[in-house]
Specification:
The complex is a heterodimer of chains A (116) and B (115). Chain A has 116 residues and is mainly β. Chain A has no helices and 11 strands. In chain A, β4 and β5 form a beta hairpin. Chain A is globular, with a radius of gyration of 14 Å. In chain B, 37% of the residues are buried. Chain B starts with a strand and ends with a strand. Chain B is globular and about 45 Å long. Classes of the chains: A mainly beta (116), B mainly beta (115). Chains A and B meet through β4, β5, β9 and β10 of A and β4, β5, β9 and β10 of B.
Chain lengths: 116, 115
């Protein structure tokens, strides 16, 4: 069953705590993305990676960090420096080849992060 | 960076009425995609438009790409309760490099359908 798996579905963070959101894909996609969604807002890009061991900051990278050690995995850490982390976090992946399917993004089910 | 405006932000329609959402960019686009997010769900890809003036249909949904490749619309004919959700456009600027894959999403149009 191919797709993108995000875990956990719900996560609670204490003040001053770092938390890590998991994103795994078995679609053999080179590119992976992290988005933040707030109520009434669109999807804002946090970080993206187009190849293993390389990633780029998106529009709202401050207070977040990522790694891309494996093609299948792109974990996101929400650090204590992110003062307003409560949001819905979505991971996505896309192929970087194929004239028709390239650039279409496939999303995981998301993680809802709340601050205690 | 690339910016895209999507209107309206909210739309409430009676079941059976039509619905249209618009996406506008100040710059020429390479392509535009449309996604649907059901309440509590995640965005799901609907369609991609690439050519100037392109029109594509999926059952009751009609997608158009403007002649200047700066705007697009999604029209739903005779809405049903299953159409409820938020519809997002996602764009890639024409000046994006060949190796650039990230998209810029609009803020979405939230559609409510009254039975």
């Amino acid at each position: 069953d191919g797709g993108i798996t995000q875990s956990p579905k719900y996560l609670f963070r204490k003040e001053g705590q770092n938390v890590t959101l998991s994103c795994e894909q078995n679609l053999n996609h080179d590119a992976m993305y992290w988005y933040r969604q707030d109520p009434g807002q669109g999807l804002r890009l946090i970080y993206y990676s187009q190849i293993v061991n390389d990633f780029q900051k998106g529009d709202i990278a401050e207070g977040y960090s990522v790694s891309r050690e494996k093609k299948e995995s792109f974990p996101l850490t929400v650090t204590s420096a992110q003062k307003n982390p409560t949001a819905f976090y979505l991971c996505a992946s896309s192929s970087t080849s194929g004239s028709v399917t390239k650039n279409i993004q496939y999303f995981g089910a998301g993680t809802r992060l709340s601050v205690l | 960076g690339q910016q895209v405006m999507q209107i309206p932000q909210y739309q409430h329609v009676q079941e059976g009425e039509d619905f249209t959402t618009y996406c506008n960019s100040s710059t020429t686009l390479s392509n535009i995609q449309w996604y649907k997010q059901r309440p509590g769900g995640h965005p799901v890809f609907l369609i991609q438009l690439v050519k100037s003036g392109e029109v594509k249909k999926q059952k009751r949904l009609t997608f158009q790409f403007g002649e200047a490749k700066k705007n697009s619309s999604l029209h739903i004919t005779a809405t049903q309760t299953t159409d409820v959700g938020t519809y997002f456009c996602a764009v890639r600027a024409a000046y994006s490099g060949a190796g650039s894959y990230q998209l810029t999403f609009g803020k979405g149009t939230k559609l409510s359908v009254i039975p």
